[in-house]
Structures are given as C-alpha cells and as structure tokens.
Amino acid sequence: MKNLFLLFSLMCCFSLYAQDYFPTNSGVKTSSKTMVAFTNATIYVTSEKVVKKGTLLIADGKVIQVGTSVNLPRGTQIINLSGKSIYPSFIDIYSSFGIKKPKKSSVNYTKTQYEASRDGYYWNDHIRPDTNPIKSFSYDKKEALELIKAGFGVVNTHMEDGIIRGNGILVALNSNSTDAYRILDSKSAQYLSFSKSNASRQAYPSSKMGAIALLRQVYNDAYWYAQGKMKNKDMALKALNKNKNLVQIFKADNLLDAFRADKVGDEFGIQYTIVGSGEEFERIEDVKNSKANFIIPVNFTKAYDVSNPLLAQQISLRDMRKWNQEPSNLKVLSENGVRFALTTHSLKSVASFHKNIQKAIQYGFDRKAALASLTNIPAAIIGNNTIGNLNTGSHANFIITSGDVFDSKTIIYENWVQGTKNSIQDMHIKDLSGTYMLHVNNQNYELTISGKGTDQKGVIKKDDNTITSKFSYKDNWVSITLKDGDIYTRMVGKIINAANVMQGNAFDSQENITYWSASKKVQKQDAKKSKLKKTTKEMITALPVSYPNLGFGNYELPKTETILIKNTTVWTGEDIGILKNTDVLLKNGKIVKIGKNLRAKRAKKINGAGKHLTAGIVDEHSHIATSAVNEGAQNSSAEVSIEDVIDPNDINIYRNLSGGTTSIQILHGSANPIGGRSAIIKLKWGENAKNLIYPNSPKFIKFALGENVKQSRYSYGTRFPQTRMGVEQVFIDYFTRAKEYDLIKKSGVPYRKDVEMETLAEILNGERFISCHSYVQSEINMLMKVAEKFNFRINTFTHILEGYKVADKMKEHGVGASTFSDWWAYKFEVNDAIPYNAAIMHNAGVTVAINSDDREMSRRLNQEAAKTIKYGGLSELDAWKTVTLNPAKLLHIDDKVGSIKVGKDADVVLWSHHPMSIYAKVEKTIIEGKIFFDREEDIRKRGLIKKEKSNLIDMMLKEKISGGKTQIPVKRKDRNFECDTFEEL
Amino acid sequence: MKNTLYSILFLLVVGNLLAQQTPANKQSHAYSIEGATAHIGNGQVIENSLLIFSNGKITFIGSAKNKIARQGKVINAKDKHVYPGFIAANSTLGLVEIDAVKASDDQKEIGIMNPHIRSLIAYNTESKVIESMRPNGVLMAQISPRGGTLSGMSSIVQFDAWNWEDAAIKMDDGIHMNWPGSFTQGQVQLGKDVVMKPNLKYPQNLKKIKSYLTNAKNYLEGDNTKAHLPYQATKGLFNGSKKLFIHVNGQKEIIDAVTTCKQSGIKNIVIIHADGANYIADFLLKNEVSVILDRPHKNPNSEDEGYDDTYTIAKKLIDKGLLVCIGMEGEMERMSSRNLPFYAGTFAAHGLDKETALQLITFNTAKILGIDNLVGSLEIGKDATLFISKGDALDMRGNILTDAFIQGRKISLETHQTKLWKRYSNKYSK
Fold it and tell me: Between vectors from CA A701 to CA A751 and to CA A619, what angle results, nearest 5°?
C-alpha cells in the first residue's frame, strides 16, 4: 500500500524530467524550477562537517547553499525540519543494480571447450574489458526502492561476470527521471575478479592460479598492444587500454584472494580497490600493508542452532568464531586506518543493512567512520566529488531522519535524490511508545505501545492478563479492536496533546457509540530512558583472533629462542652419523653448536635424555596448504604458480608439524605435461602466505607423464596429447618455441612478454628445475632424452615408480628420484611399481627421497622412510636421509636444511623414540629456532578449543532463546588435494 | 663390493624360495619352531618358545624348556618372533585388481538391497595384490562387497589357494549394511569451503531399512510359497548364524542402527568405522556390539580434532571394555592391506601395549568374525597359520619374514614384486 503510494508520487513528477530540447505532444511545454529550503535541521554536510539548526537550500536537483544563515529567495518552499537530521544519501560502489548477468548454460556438454568463442577479441573469453553495461542496463524501480528506503542515493553498477568485467556506470536512484539524467557517469571504474564468465564455456582458466596467471598475461599483452606491435586487432585489449585510467575494482571472494589480487596489481603498478569479504580482521596487518582501498560487505553469519548437541558437535570452531568476530570487522578496519567504503552487495535483503551497521557499532565501529564509509569515501574512490556530500553544487541527494541515522530508533522519513523527494515514512507520524491507561466501557486497561513509524504495535492487558486485541496507527489515526470476554469493542481516535493522550469513539457490535481515551503513564518513561542508555552503552568485545583463525591457531606467533637440547641422540644426517649423549645449541634461528656438555646462558634447556633429535622432515611432493592444485585446461600451464595460491590456513600444516615435517614442496598437479611452478615453503604455522615461502626460493616447475596427462580416464578426451607419443612432441614443441623466444629476448629487440615462455626459457637456461611426475620407464627415458637434446637436465623424477628399471640411465643423466615407499596398483601404469624401488635406485647411485603426495602420509614420513629398510635393506642412516637430506638436495635447499650441521637453519625435531620406529612420537618441532609444535602445548590447545566452543555454544543458545535468528549447523568438509585433484573454478 | 654381497645374499634367498610350489602342498610333515619369542595373539607372550604343528594344526605351544620331543623339521628361531597369521577385516582384496581399470573392479553391485550377493565367487586367488600381503604376515582376510544399503555377504579366506573354494575359511559369514548418514553435502559455492548439512531424508531412509527388515522377517516366518532371494538370504541374521556388519559413523547413527536392527530381531551386530563410538561405549556393551575400527592412518574427522585422534581411538574403546579389531575399508585399501601390522603398531605407539595392539589383527579379529575356533592365536587345535619374523612384526624395521605357514603348509614369500626386485638388482650388479 505504502509502496504503491510512493510509486504513484514518483510517476506524477515524471514529466518534469523531459529533456529541454525534446518536442512535446501532450500539451504545452512547461518548465519549473522550484527552490526548496529545509530549515532548522542538523545537517551533515559531510561526515566531518555538521551544521546545527541549519538550512539546506536546493534547486534543480543540486545543492544551492547550506548553512545557518542562508538567504531564501522569494517563492522558496520551506520545510521545517526542527529536531530532524539531514545526511547525504549513501553510495554503494559495488553493485549490479539493473544489470542482469548471463545465465550459465545448463546443457551438459561432454566435450571441453579449449578455444575462445568470440572473434576479434582476446584469446580468452573470460577477459571482457570491452563490456559496457550501458547496453544491457535497465533501471529497476523495485530494486531502487529497497535501496532508497535504506538511504542510498547513488550506486555504481556493473556486469558481474568474467575475470575482467568492463566498466561500471554511476547511477542516481532517481526513479522518476530518465537514464538521461540519472546516469551520472557512463564509464566509472573497471571491475575485475577471479571468476569466469557465465557467457562462455572456455575451460581456461580452470583454477585460481590460472586466473591469476591469465591476468598477468593480459596486462603484458595490453602493453604490447598499446605499443602498436600486435599484427591483429583485439577489441578486448583495446578496451582494456582505454579503461586504464579508471578506478580498478577487484572483487575478492575471500581474504586470501584479496591479497592475491593486490599482489598481481602491485606487479603491474595498479592499486586495485578491493571488494572484501568481511574477514579482513583476521589478518589486519596485511590488509593495512596492502595500502588498498576496500569495499566491505556488511553481511554477518547467523548464530548456529546448537540446541541439538549431536549436531552442534559438528560445527568447527572456525565457523563458530566467525559468528562472534565478524561484527567487529568494521571497527578493526577503521581503527587500523584502512580506507573503506561499504556495500550492500552480499546482503540477501537490503533491509538488513541498518541492523548490521548497528551491530557493528555495538562492536565499536565509530559512527563518524560509518557515515564516511557510506558517503565521502565511496565518492572519493569513484572519483566524484558531487555526491556523498551536501556542498554547494553537489547533487541534492540526502536523507531526512528523526535522529542519528545509525540508531535503531531512528526513522528515515525521506530520501531525496537529485532534488526529488522519495517519501519513506510520514514525517508527521508520532512516536507513541510508552504505556497508557486505556479507559473504555467503564473498564480500565493497560495499553503498551512499542515500535516505530507506522510499525508501532500495541498490547492490551487487564489486571496483568493479556487481552485479545488489535492495534494500528496510520495516517495519524489510532484504531483498536478489543475482545474482552465475548464482547468486541472497536475504537477509532486521534492523538491529542503531544502524543500523551489519544481519544475518540468506541463502537460495540450493535454500533452503540461510547467515548474512549488513553493517557500516557509518565513515570514509565524514566525507566525506559535509563534502559535505552544502557543498551547504547553496552559494547560487545569479540573473541580474540588467532593465526590462522581456527582451532590450534597461534594467538601469538612463536618467537626465535635460544634453545639448548641436552644429552640426546643426534641423527646428524651427515658423515659423522649418529651422536649419542650430545647437546645441540640453536641460536638466532640457526644451529650454532653440536657437542658434549655445551653451555649457554639464558638458553631454554630441553632435556633430550632417552630421546632422538633429527633434522626436520622435508617432503618433496605435497599438495597441502594450497587453494588449487591443477590448471589443466591447457596442455601447458607453465605460466601458473602455486606461490600465488598458498593457503596458510590449512590445518594440515599443523598436522604435518605434529609428524616432524618442516619443509615441503607444494607441487602443481599432473593434469598436463607441462604443469605449473611450485612453492617451496616452511610450515611456519600462523604466518601469512608470503612468509611461508623460502626466501630466494629455488625455482621449480612440475612436469607430468603418463595416464593423467593423456586424459586416460576421460570419456571424451580431446586435448592433445592422448598418447605417450604425443607427450614427447608437446615437450619438443614447447622447448623449441621457448628457445626461439629466448633468442629474441636476448637479442635486445622488443618482444611480447609471454610468462609461459619466460618460465620455459628459465629451464633451458638452468635457472628453473623440473620435478616430473612419472611412472613407466619408457617415458622416463624419453624425457631425459628430450632434456639432453635441449642441453639441460631433469632435476627430479617424482613418483618414478619404474625408476628401478632405468636407474642406470637416471644416474648417468644426473636426475634424482622422489618416490612412494609402497604405493601401487591404483592404476594401470603402477602395476610394476615395487616397494624395492627406492633401494634399487639408491644402490645404483641415484639420490632418492621418499615423498607423500598425501596430506595424511606427510605427517608420518618417518615410517615411510623405515620401509626402505624393510624393502631392500637400506641402512638406517641412508633410510633416514630419504626424508631429510636427500629431498633437501633435490630441492636445492640442502645448504639450509636436511641435516643437523652447524650453520644450517635450526629446523629440528625431537622424537620420543628412534625416529624410524613405529612407536616414535614427535615431542617438539622447531623451525628456525621457533617451537611450532610441542606435545604439551598441543594438549593445552585442545583444552582451549573445548572451552571456547562451549563458551560459544552458550552464547548461541542465549542468542536463540532471546529470539535471534539462527541457522542449521554445518559440518566443514575436509579438503583432499592430490596430484589428480581437478577443482573447477 | 656392497652390490656383490647383496646379490649373493638374495641369491641364497631366491634359491630357497624358487623351488616352492604356489599354492603350497598339504603339510606332509610336522614342524617344530624353537627358540622364538611367541606372540600368542591373545595377549600372552612366551619367550624362548616351542611351537609344534602337524596336519595343519598346532599341537604344542609352550616354553622350549619343556623336555618334549621335537617333531618333524625343526626350525631354529632364536632371536626371532613367531606370530599367528594376521587377519584383515572388511577388505576387498581379490575383488579389484587395479583401481582405475573398471574391467578389473568387482566390488560393488548395482541396487540398494542386495543381501543375496556373494563376494566369495568373485574373489580372485591369483591377484598380485593378494600375494603381496604374505611377506608382511597378512595371511587372511574378510572379503566384503561394497555399495548400496545392503551390500551382500562377505566370506573369510586365506591367502594361499588355487580357487575361491579352497581359499574359504568361512563362507558367507555375514551381511554388510551401509547405514545412511545424518549429514549430506550442501551446495558447493564458488570460493567457499564445502560444508555438510543435516540430511533431511535421514528419517525416511531409516524407516525404509526398518520396513525392509520387518518384511524380510515376516516373509521368513510365513509360508514362503514364492521365492524371494534377498529375503531368503537374510535368514541367518534372524537365527544368529550370520552377523550383520553395519558400516556406520556418528553417535546418533550408531544408536539408530543398533536399535533398529536389534528391534527387528537381528542377533549378532558388528559396527564398522564407528566414529563417535567412544562416547556411547556403554550402549554398545549393553547390546553386545563389537567394533571394526578404521586404519589409524587417516585424517582426523574435523579441523578441531587432535592430530592423533585416529591413533588413540583404539585405546579409548578398549579401555571401555569393547571388543575391537582393525578393518581396511577406505582409500587405497587393497594395496595398503599389507600395512595391517603397522596400523596395529601405530595403535601401540598411542596408548595400547604391544600385545593388546597385536590382538587387533589376530585374536580379536577372529573373535569378531566368528573364526576364533580356527585361527587368531597360537593355541593347540587351531590352524597352523603363522609366521616367523626377524624382529617386531608391528614395526617396519622388524617385519622381515623368514617363514610363513597357512594351515601348516609352508608358503612362498615370493611375489611379482620380489621377482622384479631381484631381476633388476641383478641387472645392475653385473
């Protein structure tokens, strides 16, 4: 009803907005330029500048003047806003208002589409900077109304589709105008994301790291195009270059993606404005250091319904904490000086926007900052100074409220956009809240009214018993229906005397008319006031954040300590072998002394008697701690890098530490012959992605052979190669081209930078090493021959299950082996895999490591090493090297880790037993002198998790019982990445 | 030098083994194993033991100090260890040869209610995966079908046989049921982690099982005029001759499963996997339900669980008085079955004493599978299915077998893998 009225009033003014030079055929041509003045209001000219008892004068959709002494020309319409406030209307700069994105085709295609479907554009369909959504923009009045009601006046909308999405358009929410007036800027900002376009099925990129690599290549190509060096026309690159000077707004799905995007931007001198996820508080220092502007959603998780303990058990601490901590995000951001705007984008309903802001304020978010994040900051980000403020000349976009716009009691009466009024609540409606004595039919009742605006509700009691009744307050008329006993009474009446008394006529069912009245009880007001004060004062503190922010996270990162491990059995991994009753001193993150009866003042002393100390385990082949494994949508993906997608929040990091693993190589998967670049990291639980990576990390890339790369288990494989024969040709082709590329590059002539070719050229130049997934002897031999032809050497064959058949050739080539201890029979090509493989290769002089390729096995590689003793009879020392020094050698990090040697990193593990005994347990895992795993500390952490969970359960029960909305419990599914894990982007 | 020594060493071994017939012939003479540390399988240990067996059965076990006549071939096993053959419960050995080759996969029939399906007839005694079990002391297994709600019947086999009839120790020992989960995977959202939500169909699924069992029972108690193969197959469940193996996870699910099946008149229930069983141990004890645990080498169920929760679970259940053994179902289950002793070893590292841990793959398994009259411990009258190991067989470094016997037959420890090992070691030593 109310909405209808609004729409009607909007339609009436429509004719005002016909363009000046347009002919009129509906009557005579008229023009009207009315001045409107709003007086006696508290006016927020900007979030910083407030004018009390001020006047706002507007005309022709613009602000003429604001101040305390404004001269009002004759004929000015004056609206007295005594006691009310005026704010600039809000701005949402991440919106898809009025723009529908294409639907994903629901047809089930059996064939993968590798090529682009657009002609004359970039080779990848998901790069769409040429999108100008003005073509598909259709002003949506219904959606606009929701935004107007929440106080918004302008949105910057865009086509939310693709990796590069094209430009946005800045639209005033002026529903009774035309696009000719309300579109303030038809090319405002360019939007980006890591998500593919729904408009195309092109498979590349199939992973996040592919999307990241693609972005880089696009920027390189755009540069080349701008130089005029490209032979062809490319409408996408052309558009990208044209949009270069627009604000670049990047939509990140989660906090890790925000950092990933920022990194890519930095590489190309672009500072993205990042659309955040609400998780920024989890790594606020890094958010700060990104120096990016942010656009933050105000969408909070509901509490879980934990009333069923069996279901409640399934919820992870991470998810429970989120509910508790999320509302503090805005406070944390603003206190840390991060510049951010707010968006309603992820909200299911815009109506919840204010409630959520109020919640954030309860958690300490500053009101002034809140206003800035909705007005001047978004305006500044988008580069428009005529919105988000009420300075002279700015758009007359403002809201009129009953008080502080962020108070729950406050009513937004009107939202003016471009000088046009949108009425939301009748300004003259009174606040009736309070308790009244109702007198009718010679009976006394107690009437309690609560709520605001037209939503005020009344409850009637007689002698403390609630009576069936219906109350409504509309257009300044009160109507009450009452059923006392069997008698119905209907009352209508008006408010008299500043809302303290209401009175009128009462009708019974026989239409007999009597008089009724209700007068407010005064004494109740004081109680109410003090209650109100109390609720506004009550500040909520969120639970502390840990790194990462989940169970077993560290509230404080471990510090480098001076540690003296006394009187233990030291497995040096060096020629001196095993030293009994020996001390090891760790200082400044290094191993500084090994010997007997060592002394060190102020060192933390650990009694190692009866225990064994070894170097930390190194896993050559791991897929933990990453958000992606395979970029398999092309037969080569040398352009992608796992370093771009490290996930420091993976619990498997901690679990690996509990098994003594300290360094791992995160490899790309085996979906294609030329895979992606690796990340070599230390498992410093709690650090961010960047700090996990080895400084000056050796460069590696994954190659793969065999069944996976030839798509053996695809029903409809169409990608070259489909046989081992083809695999060889892929390598020869790419290396031939890389050689040509490198020649041009070295010759000094300008060249088109190609990240894939750069990577392959590094291999040819001996700067990057290959770790190749391999199974059968024929292909192993083949790759060595291809490498030799191009004059380089393969560094490592990983898996290498038939390595024992060509161990002599491997030795001659100089390649190392990183194999499973005993896996086999899971596919045809591992039929001849034998557990004696490691021993045979070792005996033939090959450097042999035992790896995991499995997040479970990587936490007990000591046992896997022990199997080389059982199968093939390796000595204990040699067996132990297969998980420490040998993988360190293969990864070219043996100068830092892999053995206990003075000068190497203090990455050591203290074991309860002989480290290769099945009975061995890790007591402590130390990386660079910092204790990252400690058995006793682990038990303490379990206690903390239990305590925090039950604390949160109590809070959630309270939330439910006090009427808060809840959601059904969810259980987090364990992620399991292996070589052939193919996650769709 | 090292290589020559090496090749001499294994040529000696090869010489010893190549002559052996596989499967081995019936035991023709007695064996006396003397001097070994005998791990009986029921928790007991006899140092410096004497073990005698003939005609496939153990005839004596005790201290070597006993002045009784040694019979047949005497094996000096001083400093070595003798163990009863290890038994892998809930395995699919012989039903699949190569995981990724569909043609070699016979573990899962279509349909929901297949109690009449028999795993035994698909069991491939020639499987190369099976022969790789023996050098690690794993000599028997329960072969279970997978899939559906009622997957079918398992059988228990030994690993040295010409065909499935020879292999069978106990045919059709039980029926396997997959109990539905009360959680199901929610919608997968881009950039978000995958979450599981309560399964709204769970109560319906439970009712379906209940009514199936009721109908089966009614059918069996009725006139049976018309054949109904699935119902007929369930007969053993109601008369106690067959066990019901329920594959189930979660406290609620376990309680629902056991209650439903007991109420339907099923006598012997074993639960498999059984996450959460430690919280409802009293309930399980009261209902005489034993537990086949998963391998400890798996990840904890959730992020907040201790890294060692899968290692300490055996101790938790045994402390509560439950009968527990180790089963194999899960990732890479067939090729990993040879690691069965190391799973027991891991449980020993995390709370159990070694002999109790050993029971999880010998005595307890036999008891749970209902074959403890034949195997599972080194006791007089039981099958001479046993082996001699150079060291602690639960530890990778000690699990090195010198001799193994199945029903008294001295079996070959040669496999496809050892042959390749020797062939290629030979190549390089020349």
Answer: 160
- Are residues B79 and B90 part of one domain? no
Same domain, B248 and B386: no
pLDDT of A330-345, one tens digit each? 999 999 999 999 999 9
CATH number at B110 reads 3.20.20.140
Domain that holds residue B66: 21-84+376-430
Of B196, B252, B300, the CB nearest to A970: B196
Residues of A in contact with B302 (CB under 8 A): 314, 316, 971-972, 974
For residue B33, give the CATH number of its domain: 2.30.40.10
Number of structural domains chain B divides into:
2
**Pair B163, B219 in one domain:** yes
Residues near A715 by Cβ (< 8 Å), separated by ≥ 6?
A110
Looking at residue A220, its amino acid is N
Q: Does A625 touch chain B (CB under 8 A)?
A: no
**What does the pLDDT look like over A181-228, one tens digit per residue?**
999 999 999 999 999 999 999 999 999 999 999 999 999 999 999 999
Cross-chain residue pair A972–B190, CB shorter than 8 Å: no
Nearest to B194 among A552, A659, A973 (CB): A973
Is B176 among the domain residues? Answer: yes
Q: What is the pLDDT of residues A731-742, one digit of tens each?
A: 999 999 999 999
Residue whose entry in the numeric block shows the structure tokens 């009344």: A458
In B, minimum Cα distance to A193 occurs at B191
Please classify residue A1 by burial: count the beta carbons closer than 10 Å to its beta carbon, then call 0-12 exposed, 13-18 middle and 19+ buried. exposed
In chain A, residues with a C-beta closer than 8 Å to the C-beta of B395 are 866, 917-919
The bridge status of strand B168-178 relative to strand B183-185 is: unpaired
Maximum CA extent, chain B: 79
- State the CB neighbour count (10 A cutoff) for residue A474: 13
Chain B residues touching A934 at Cβ < 8 A: none
Q: If you count DSSP H runs as helices and E runs as strands, how many of each does chain B have, helices first?
A: 14, 20
Neighbouring residues of B430: CB distance < 8 A, sequence distance ≥ 6: none
Of the candidates B279, B282, B331, which has an alpha carbon nearest to the alpha carbon of residue B96? Answer: B331
User: Residue B197: what pLDDT?
Assistant: 83
Judge whether B249 lies within some domain: yes
ipTM: 0.95
In-domain check, residue B11: no
Neighbours of B334 (CB within 10 A): 27
Q: Which residues of B touch A655 (CB under 8 A)?
A: 299-300, 307
Asked if residues B276 and B199 have their Cβ atoms less than 8 Å apart, the reply is: no
Cα-Cα-Cα-Cα dihedral sign, residues B211, B212, B213, B217? positive
CB atoms B196 and A973 under 8 Å: yes
